[in-house]
TrEMBL record:
The keyword DNA-binding applies. It holds the Pfam family Response_reg. This is Sigma-54 dependent transcriptional regulator. SMART domains: AAA, REC. InterPro entries: AAA+_ATPase (IPR003593), AAA_lid_NorR (IPR058031), CheY-like_superfamily (IPR011006), Homeodomain-like_sf (IPR009057), HTH_Fis (IPR002197), P-loop_NTPase (IPR027417), Sig_transdc_resp-reg_receiver (IPR001789), Sigma_54_int (IPR002078). It comes from the Bacteria. Residues 152-381 form the Sigma-54 factor interaction domain.
Length: 492
């Protein structure tokens, strides 16, 4: 598990001491911050992830013990160390015993001892963080069992219908016409039809009619003989020959040249064709599957697709639903892609945070499964926590903060109710606004107020331990810190 570089904050009222500490710590594998006193340090802690805090005791305005006590509330996971003269020993021991600080360093310090101690603390903290993460996120050897059907992942009712249709259509010879938006899995469906058919020992030949230039298409389908056109240096088999006893998948059929569509129609009707440049008629046994992401009626009206060809190909229609109509299939598919890209990129992401999953379920997915696939691959490359969170997704999808909250907002109330039920806390008792319980049905509460009260309640139940409260609420600690920070910002 790769953890990011640690960060250390030194707090002292004397600039010379801070400069000296900074110089010594160049040897440390850590980002070093300095602050001239408690108030400046608290600002830094609010705006940055600080792992280790080393503070002087005797400082004007706010003494070191009071400062570190405050830190223990807002950043309980950070390791707090006192930099102290021997004369402060009683204060120091009391602070350690009360759990306000983790340990102390002597002032004046020995450079080597200082670096060694901080390195040990960095190591110690890493182990603690790893332990917490491992406990919190329960790393697993395998992801939860996923419903799969011949290349498809997902168990929504709509996809169950599709699987049923594929199972019924696969054994027949009749042509199948697959429609569905771009990236919705039309080729996966075509392959499933082939794999589940009696032709599975034969070849599955896919031709993307949009990707091949019109002048080459005829030769791609039917092959050519040597000398048929300039560049035809030898005989070449086309897809029709290669798919003999197998399946020919004509993807993006409405992009095929309309004149060639007439030749294709003849081939489908008779099973016979001639290679380009040859008069010899050949016969093959091919099952046709075609697909388009256009609406066939429109494509016919626009003269992109021959009507007679369409009716010939559209014996068994299959219409794939867009990803955003497949409910939580999206999360299952994302989990499978996560496993795949974890393996390819040698990463070990354990899954997604609850809000990241919510984003996956709420997003519209204009590019369907292919877009989801690309998103997960990017996240695996760009994220650096064991769980992938909603912010990584939002940044890859280019969503503003406002768009992200709008996207996540709609289910919030339900989620809060779910969580209260999960933790057996009666909602009316745990979430109170303006002195009224949420069981008061006459009042409508804003989502923001419900959220804030819920978080405040969780914090107070967990003795202000942000990590525990975050765990209880099912969000990451960083999300909670961000929210607390926002309230503090708007209050100041
Ligand atoms: N239900 C699914 N489960 C897992 N992976 C899927 C699923 N549907 C599609 N995919 C994957 O998504 C990607 C796009 O699927 P596919 O190429 O079949 O879509 P398409 O509809 O044929 O796209 P286009 O319209 O652009 O030709 C592929 O990598 C495919 O393996």
């Amino acid at each position: 598990m790769d953890l990011p570089k640690s960060s250390v904050l030194f707090v002292d009222d004397e600039s010379m001491i801070l400069d000296a500490l900074k110089r010594v710590c160049r040897k440390l594998y850590a980002t070093v911050f300095t602050a001239h006193g408690g108030h400046e340090a608290l600002e830094i802690i609010k705006n940055n992830q600080i792992d280790i805090i080393v503070s002087d005791i005797n400082m004007p305005n706010m003494d070191g013990i009071t400062f570190l006590e405050k830190v223990s509330k807002i950043s309980p996971e950070s390791i707090r160390i006192i930099l102290t003269a021997y004369t402060d020993v009683n204060n120091t021991l009391a602070a350690i015993n009360e759990g306000k600080v983790w340990g102390y360093l002597n002032k004046p310090w020995d450079n080597t001892h200082l670096i060694n101690t901080l390195n040990q603390v960095i190591e110690f903290r890493k182990i603690m963080v790893e332990r917490t993460l491992l406990k919190e996120f329960k790393p697993r050897d395998s992801f939860p069992s996923i419903d799969k059907f011949s290349g498809f992942v997902g168990s929504s009712a709509k996809m169950q219908n599709i699987y049923q249709t594929i199972k019924q259509c696969a054994p027949c010879k009749a042509s199948v016409f697959i429609t569905g938006p771009s990236g919705s899995g039309k080729e996966v469906a075509a392959q499933a039809l082939h794999e589940l058919s009696r032709r599975k020992e034969g070849s599955f030949i896919a031709l993307n009619c949009a990707a091949i230039p019109a002048e080459l298409m005829e030769s791609e389908i039917f092959g050519h003989v040597k000398g048929a056109f300039s560049g035809a240096h030898s005989n070449r088999d086309g897809a029709a020959t290669l798919a003999h006893n197998g399946t020919l998948f004509l993807d993006e059929i409405a992009e095929m040249d309309i004149i060639l569509q007439a030749k294709l129609l003849r081939f489908i009707q008779t099973g016979t064709f001639s290679r380009v440049g040859s008069g010899k008629v050949e016969k093959v046994d091919v099952r046709f599957i075609s697909a388009t992401n256009r609406e066939p009626d429109k494509a016919i009206a626009e003269n992109k697709l021959r009507e007679d060809l369409f009716y010939r190909l559209n014996v068994l229609p299959i219409a794939l639903p867009p990803l955003n109509e497949r409910g939580s299939d999206v999360v299952q598919i994302a989990e499978v892609f996560l496993q795949k890209y974890n393996q390819i990129e040698e990463r070990n992401y354990q899954g997604f945070t609850p809000l990241a999953k919510k984003l996956l379920r709420k997003y519209q997915w204009p590019g369907n499964v292919r877009q989801l696939q690309n998103l997960i691959y990017s996240a695996v490359v760009l994220a650096n926590e064991p769980l992938i969170d909603e912010h990584i997704f939002a940044s890859i999808l280019n969503l503003s903060d406002e768009q992200l909250s709008l996207l996540l907002e709609s289910e919030d109330v339900a989620q809060i109710h779910e969580k209260a039920t999960d933790s057996n806390i009666p909602i009316g008792e745990c979430v109170v606004t303006d002195g009224k319980s949420f069981q008061d049905n006459s009042k409508i509460y804003t989502l923001a107020s419900v959220e804030r009260k819920t978080i405040e309640h969780a914090l107070s139940q967990c003795n202000d331990n942000v990590v525990k409260a975050a765990e209880a609420l099912g969000v990451s600690p960083s999300t909670l810190y961000r929210k607390i920070q926002q309230w503090q910002d708007s209050a100041s």
